[in-house]
Amino acid sequence: MSTAKPSSPGVSARMSRQARRDTAPEVAVRRLLHASGHRYRLNVRVPGMSRRTIDIAFTRAKVAVFLDGCFWHGCPEHATRPKANAEWWRQKLDGNIARDAETSEHLTDEGWIVLRFWEHEAPESVAERVATAVARQRRAGRRQNKGEQ
User: Fold this and answer.
1) Rg (the chain; Cα; Å)
2) CB within 8 A of 65, min separation 6: which ones?
3) Could you give the CA distance from residue 124 to residue 67 in angstroms, rounded to a whole number?
4) How crowded is residue 125: how many other Cβ atoms within 10 Å of its Cβ?
5) Does the residue 9 lie in any domain?
6) Which residue, 77, 32, 39, is CA-closest to 58?
7) In whole numbers, what is the pLDDT of the chain averaged over residues?
8) Polar residues bias: where (predicted)?
9) Is 121 part of a structural domain of the chain?
10) Would residue 85 be called left, alpha or beta, if left means φ above 0 and alpha means ψ between -120 and 50 degrees?
11) Is residue 6 a part of any domain in this protein?
12) Which of 60, 103, 144, 147 sits a CA distance of 20 to 30 A from 88?
């Protein structure tokens, strides 16, 4: 990464105030999951990767849910690239995308199901897909446990 810095103190201040957790899309999905009886953990550290967390984790089922912001994570529909200080932003945003891929690969290698959603996706659709994945994992775990006994 280059030594370039944000283009101004104002940009730096705005970036530091950007919500990292409890964003509106994340809260909406969590409410729907909770209302449907699902229990989960929040901001769980990724095993073996310091400073990385799973937004919504179903630890027993090993399902990791990430709700990614369109700007920060490179949504193919909505991502934009700032013109001011373009090289710094390119490196910053490309680094985020690479880190997301590395995290997903690591969790998959550890036996987790990784679900990534964009902030613009309908919370109802996201919650439904998460619930389906969790139920599938729990059924698979029960079948596996019966086979071991």
Assistant:
1) 18
2) 29, 40, 54, 55, 56, 57, 58, 115, 117, 130
3) 13
4) 12
5) no
6) 39
7) 88
8) 1-10
9) yes
10) left
11) no
12) 103
Q: Which has more pLDDT, 132 or 50?
A: 132
Question: What is the Cα–Cα distance from 114 to 130, expressed in whole angstroms?
Answer: 10
Specify if 33 maps to a domain.
Answer: yes
Give the integer Cα–Cα distance in Å for 27 and 33.
Answer: 10
Token code pair at residue 118? 């964009």
Lowest mean pLDDT among 69-78, 108-117, 128-137, 139-148: 139-148
Structural domain count, the chain: 1
Give the CATH number for residue 77: 3.40.960.10
50, 58 Cβ separation under 8 angstroms: no
Encoded tokens for 76: 């193919």
